[in-house]
Amino acid sequence: MNRVPIGTKSGLVYKMTIENKQFDTVIGLEVHLQLKTQSKIFCGCANNFGAEANSQVCPVCLGLPGSLPVLNKKVLEYAVKIGLALNCKINSYIKFDRKNYYYPDLPKAYQISQYDFPVCYQGFVLVPQESSTVKKVGITRAHIEEDAGKLIHDNENNCSLVDYNRTGTPLLEIVTEPDLRSAQEAYDYLQILKLTLQYLDVSDCDMEKGSLRCDANISIRPVGETKLGVKTELKNMNSFRAVKAALTFEENRQTQVVKAGGKITQETRLWDEAKQMSITMRSKEEAHDYRYFPDPDLTPFQVDSSVIEQIRKSLPELPVDKWERIKKEYGLNDYDAWILVSSPEIAAFFEECAKLHTNYKNICNWISGSLMQEINSRKLSLGDLRITPRRLVELILKAEDGTLSNLVAKDVFRYALETDKSIDEIIQEKGLAQVSDSVTLEKIVDEIITQNENAVRQIKNGDEKPLGFLVGQAMKKTQGKANPKKIGEILKRRIIDA
Ligand SMILES: [Zn+2]
Question: Which of 139, 195, 288, 487 would staple 123 via disulfide (CB 3.0–4.6 Å)?
Answer without folding.
Answer: 139
